[in-house]
Queue: 2 jobs
Job 1
Amino acid sequence: MTTLSTQKPSNPISRFFRWFFYRSRGDSPFKTILIHAALIIACVIAVYPVLRVVTISLRPNDTLLTTDLRIIPENATLDNYKEVLFGSPEKNRKSDFFLWIWNSISIVAVTSVISVILASISAYAFSRFKFPGRSAGLVFLLTTQMIPAGMLLLPLFIMIAKLKMINTPLGLLIAYAVTAVPLTIWTLKGYYDTIPVDLEEAALIDGANRFTVFTNIILPLSTPALAIAFLFSFMGGWSEYLVARVVLQKNESFTWPLGIFTYAQQFTVSWGQFAAASVLIAIPVMALFLYSSKWLISGLTLGSVKG
Amino acid sequence: MENENTFRRYLPTVLWIAALTAVYFTLNTLISPYADGITLNGKIVSEHVKELGGFLLGIFGSIALIEIYIYQMFFRTPKDLVSKIVTRTLQVIVAIAMVMVIATFLETTDLFRMGDNPIGNFFRSPITGFTNLKDTLISSGIATKDSATAVAGVFVSLLLLVVFAFIHFTSVPRNSRYGLAYLLILPAFLGVLFLIIYPFLFEIKLAFSNASLGTQATKNAQYGLQYGWANLVALFTGSVAKDAKFFEVLWRTILWTVINVTFHVAGGMGLAILLHRPMKLQGVYRTLLIFPWAIPATIAAMALRNEFDSRYGLFNILLGNLNTWLTNVSHGTASIIGIGNMFAWLAAHIGPVSWKQDPFWAFVSILISNIWLGIPFMSVIILGGLQSISQEYYEAAEIDGASKWQQFRNITIPLLRPVLTPAIVLGVVWTFNKFDIIYLITQGGPQEKTDILVSSMYKAAFSFYRYGFTAMFALVIFAILFLFTIFYLRITGGLKSATE
Amino acid sequence: MASVIYNNVIKNFGNVEVIKNLNFEVKDKEFLVLVGPSGCGKTTALRMLAGLEEITAGEISIGDRVVNDVAPKDRDIAMVFQSYALYPHMSVFDNMAFGLKLRKTSKDEIKRRVNEAAEILDITHLLDRKPRQLSGGQRQRVAVGRAIVREPKVFLFDEPLSNLDAKLRVQMRAEISKLHQRLQTTFIYVTHDQTEAMTMASRIAVINKGILQQLDTPQMLYDHPNNLFVAGFIGSPSMNFFPAKLSVSGGKVMVDVDTFQVQVPDALAGPYKNMDGKKVVFGIRPENIHDPEFAPPNIHGEKVSAKVDVTELMGNETFLYLVNGKNIFIARVDPRSQKRVGDEVQVIFDMDKFHVFDVETEEAIR
Ligand SMILES: Nc1ncnc2c1ncn2[C@@H]1O[C@H](COP(=O)(O)OP(=O)(O)OP(=O)(O)O)[C@@H](O)[C@H]1O
Ligand SMILES: [Mg+2]
């Protein structure tokens, strides 16, 4: 080391090479370039297939089948979007797009609301009280996560059928709540555990009862966690296909994943419309996701470190 | 000062309202010309809202009634002997009614049949009574057909509330150590009971039946051990869906799980390590790299399915271009002996493949898709783990003379374990059960050569309607996962740390 | 304004008995300090009074009311936590107003009281901030402020100063004392720092292993510790102890420490007259051991020879670490003393201020 650094490289080329390949602290430019190259390649792999969807959605109908790889196609047009959103009077076809979105939103939002409310309350008990059956309950909730989602589908399906809830939002709502509640309880319990008990005791002395402690101290302090829990269960149901396909069989009760699959199924594969619908749905979701990813991630790592 | 404060306080609300109104009117003016082409309309929306709202109200209303009931058990004690007798009698009556309602519910969903005998009728009486109540309400004009359930529900709730009020006023408060905890977990517990335990029991029963399309699901199904045995035999010797055999599919499932999780962890680790260093554009990279996770999985799967098209899909276009390029190079270098041959050989072997018809490539196609989708999640988890490792460990190790690789082996990996182990185990379980990608991309084809256990099961149930068989199939899959979990718990020393 | 009574209070955590039969009374308007080593049960005793911990057996009363089954909010107490427990999502004002709001106090009244408390504590300029924007000392003041706006009957403090630096601690000590004088309310204050206890308390309760050792004024505790534990715990540096034997001959009582003997002055010898040969622990405080050159006149001095092992010059005084036989002890002598390490010296034990404890019971004999 010392001999190396005292030896002054005389010619500029070898000096450049030393600067380029060797650093005692930090990364050499060579390494930096390699790292950036690797990351750029990874980014292209991650993003390009997504961009292709946009590309396809912009293609005019007659050039859909092409081997062109450009991102903005020739004669780019918004026709596909128009047809997806508003139907096409020429083909005498109406658009179900808004209906599907509405179905999805209403079902998934109600599922999430129910599961967050139920979970936030029971997670509080699991976090703060010691009672017989507590750890058994927690382990049990975790084991339910081991049950394949598909496994309960058949009995649930029969149950929903017997209750005459096929093709209703309620049937799907029941099916979705299955997966949402236990996981939400775990996430929230992990978060509550990080709130110091002192705060609650201070509030008790200040004149609060258990209920006001929960509403005035715990809930405001855990809004980020509640938001994450809501988002998780929302995301979980939002793009679900397999359960929905079983429970919902009529076009007007479809959620959007079922809906856009009909584009892909038709004999005259409506690729352009499928792509346009996908973009319309994905953009707000992705924006929300990227915006909230910081919290999502902190919620995830919190849960995984804790549990 | 005071005025400014109130102004400040209400400003955000005012802005919100203004913005929402603006959005509403713009949307309205934009969309109204096209309203004819849209199937969604106010009527559908209001119907949905009514339906879901009623459901929510019903759920939370019944939970509230149950909570009051349990609350009184824990926190009230009757004042004197007379009120004690009356209270306990009332409580027992309510409990019996509850049991009867549950029994009727179970019967409705076909868990068992009570039959058309006095006992069955007795158990059904609360529900029959409720139906009768509805009918009377309708016939007496108090309620319409639509609102009958709601009005009758309110009626029953009021009756219960009167009972509860009576108990309340004839009792004094008392302390309960665990009461509050149980009251708090009760709603979620009821949900889990109803949505997980009950279906699970139902599934076990179904597994010992011959329920299928022919028996109109459970309507005419026969139950008995021999049917369970027959289902089991069929599962292990017959075909699981249509063509594929159990062990073949099991083997493929294991392959699917192992390959996916390996690539997820390796890829995630690689990306996380690259990202876990201060550098320019880090935020941009991070944002771009989680794209596959952020895009709704259904959309991604369907988009990828198109990309595996043999002529117009991205993969074959790329492979085709590569092939052309290799061919050109081999022509250009034909004179150079070794190299020319090599390129010619490459050109002959690398080119578009038939993703849909060839079972091997079909399997590869779903693997590629699922790996692409899963890496960001894993890298985010690992990155979180990396960031929680204090830099000081590395500095200490560096002073001790550890090389970068030794640091990775001796610091990073062990300290990542608390994050990595659960992530891998959950990853295994999830991947084992994850077939939406498969279903959307290949539908298990060709000839069920890309099916995994769960997707075969799904098909057996909902394409071939072999219900009893599917239930047994599900139990076997559950047993496999359960053994895996037990095995894992043995290794890691249980869940103690998680539940303390 | 109220007194507090612990009547045969016992607390178990599972099978572990943490508080064993606690009996004492805190008088109205008194500043009582609970002191003891870490883990001795001070916090538990306080939390039972606050209603945050169930009482296993016995009774606690505030004023004339037994509060065993009274919810914390109805006990009319206020508590300052070691961690301060400020609500992170509320401003300082809201933190202080929270308790009043829950009690449906009118808005004007809340404002008046919060502002008044803020003025007393000099935190008026912080009222709009959130707790995380405050320094440790400021948080501490807010925590105290939150307690005083409530105007409770009893104030509870659980080591409120332990998170502050030394200088701030001294300052806050004085301020809390001042607050006590101003509010004229019962204060119960938990600490493991005996200096804090000595400087602030009207009376001190020393607790060890869940048992009340002695409850008295600081001066009485210091001069007349009931037992070995209290003697060793109160005072810094702590009292010197020597295993010893009493010998009585001809009306004279001698304390025999093997390598040296000291005589008990006749005026104090009464209790020991019939204890010839009894094994005891002999105790004397460092400041009662003098350098002969600077020893005050008119004391019953006894000469003991020793070797200086270490000296600590503090400026206003000097600590000599002395060795005699197997015993090591500390003398707190005049700073002008010229004794240096290695010197063989003679020091003077002031025998008017000695302590003798029974070896078995560890109780003081006097
Ligand atoms: N919730 C609990 N469960 C079991 N043991 C407990 C619990 N709380 C306290 N203890 C035990 O009770 C004993 C007394 O605890 P306490 O907190 O009262 O000590 P302390 O005197 O306040 O100590 P410190 O000066 O360190 O705060 C300790 O041994 C402690 O381990
Ligand atoms: Mg303590």
Job 2
Amino acid sequence: MEQLLVPTICTVDQLIEETPDVRTYRLKFKDDSLTDSFKWLPGQFVEFSLLGSGECTFCIASSATRKGYFDCSIKRAGIVTADIHNELDEGDEVGIRGPYGNWFPLEELKGKNLLFIGGGIGLAPLRSLIQYAIDTRNEYKDFTILYGARTSADICYKEEIEEWKNNESLKVILTIDKAEEKWKEHVGVVPKILEEKVNPVVENTKVITCGPPIMIKYTLMSLDKLGFAPKDVVTTLEMKMQCGFGKCGRCNIGSTYVCKDGPVFTYEELQKLPDEF
Amino acid sequence: MNLTTYITEPAGLQSFYEAIVATNETYAPVEKLGKFDYKQIKTPPECQPDSPIEQTMSIKPLFFPKSARVMKYEATAEGTDVTDTTEDPLAGKRVILGVKHCDARGLQVLDEVYKWDYIDTDYQKRRENTIIISARCEQAATHCFCTSLDYDVEQSDAMDVAVINGLDGKVYIQARTEKGEHFLKENASGLAATNGSALEEMKKQYQAFSGSFRLKMDYKEINGKMQSRFESPAFEEVATNCVSCNTCAFVCPTCHCFKITDERIRDEGVRYKSYDSCNNIYFTLMAGGHNPRPAKYRRWRQRAMHKFVYYKERFGVNLCVGCGKCTISCPVNISIFEVVNQVSNV
Ligand SMILES: Cc1cc2nc3c(=O)[nH]c(=O)nc-3n(C[C@H](O)[C@H](O)[C@H](O)COP(=O)(O)OP(=O)(O)OC[C@H]3O[C@@H](n4cnc5c(N)ncnc54)[C@H](O)[C@@H]3O)c2cc1C
Ligand code: SF4
Ligand code: SF4
Ligand code: FES
């Protein structure tokens, strides 16, 4: 197994400061000949090594339809992520293993209205699918993105969100928790805005959501109230991981391996798991 | 393929072992301060392959090392240099003597997770290049309950060759796999092949052995009941004294959780993969402080459920072979046998 754990070297091509505690690292393979063999679908993740510090799990935050690179958006959370924020700069090298895990149910999304609901750094995995869906826009009907952050400073991907807002085939709704002087969009937590302002069509709609646990909890309750069936709500689950490929036992919830059977689950699937996440 | 059984005297068994040790890289349970661990042996007298004593360690570390180097890395002027330091896990063949059948079964159980999707080729190579020669126990030890689990101890094919000391004073050496048959063809040439009467003698030995068990349970009933015992208050009770030392997992032939850690000295570093356990407080602790199993009883519940429900659901076998090693080594005498029985009945 040891070989399976040896990472491949990637170079930081670009570093984007998203918020005070989130940075996006745009990565390219140091050995360019590996670029084309690295194939992933939205929802999958990588094991990311800052060599000498350690390894962490991050979703791939960009879509493979945008070629030549992939993004990881990293929130300062613990030891390794703090080292990444403190030390890792453009031109530096990191170790990457993956891609691992399952992906969003792309076939099932075809022909549906898509409703994305993201909170904070939770927009990262959604962004991969959003980019993918924008690049294959004809496959889907209505396309709505509801994104919330604590404050306006905590909004990730600000420039890209502007592009989304300018794209007439997308509906973008932004909200922050509390009012701010220059803020012109919505104010209020995500579930509240969902219920009061979005008026989503329930029929023929798939909801794709990711965010902090508390947001997810109340959003699921709101979706239920609005009449969405658990099987039509898709989310990505966060569990501590190490190997990423179903061997180390770390990510297990019941007989489910979050790293292999997930991280993408429908709400219906989550309801069947033991209450251990 | 026909599997042959050979018959000999204890002295013949001794010569059989001697010949193996002389020509093969050989491992066997070796005693040190009253504890038994599988170690490489150079001379046969060191080995006590038919020791009835409870073994402290399983043969797991010979296939899944306690700590393995994954890679070495170095920051150079041209960038990061990663050297795959994974050594060829096992170039040549090796033989392990005196393996308990429960330990051998442990490998069959581990095979399931290692051959699932991402295949662990190091483990596989070690498995392929190893001949396992078991020694049938004469008596059950205090914490043994192997005969109560989901495998046929008597006819097990978890070992390549089974050695059985008959009650008639004879020794029966039986091939259990094709690999074992070939091995015996090459290494047991001086011994006589037997016929039907040997099977009778082996059966008698098994009956005497299987009659010596203090602990018995119905695993099907336990599997069934445990499924609905997730909320059982008994978990809290059984876990009270646990000191989360992880010993039970380290000695267990089937536990296989590991962690990945880095060790850095200036611009150089090494990455390791080492044993870990779900009883460890940090096992599921995530950045930011969220921990799905913060309480001891939740971690013990994971351990018990993984062994008797989850692994069975996923891979079709129990993640426990009834060897009792965890109980022997636990500093506070927690017995997995009692845990699952208690949980099933409360
Ligand atoms: C499928 C998946 C996708 C993720 N995607 C992102 C993302 O896009 N952006 C982002 O900022 N974060 C993401 N996370 C969370 C991220 O993995 C953790 O924040 C990160 O591992 C914390 O590492 P640390 O060393 O700073 O924290 P420490 O608490 O110091 O952690 C030590 C080690 O524990 C493990 N660990 C700790 N917390 C987690 C956790 N929540 N999940 C998995 N392993 C953990 C890591 O191996 C880490 O190296 C994701 C987690 C999962 C499971
Ligand atoms: S050996 Fe005993 S005390 Fe140590 S973790 Fe296992 S059950 Fe707990
Ligand atoms: S849990 Fe205990 S009895 Fe079961 S296989 Fe592991 S060490 Fe043996
Ligand atoms: S992260 Fe290792 S088994 Fe899932």
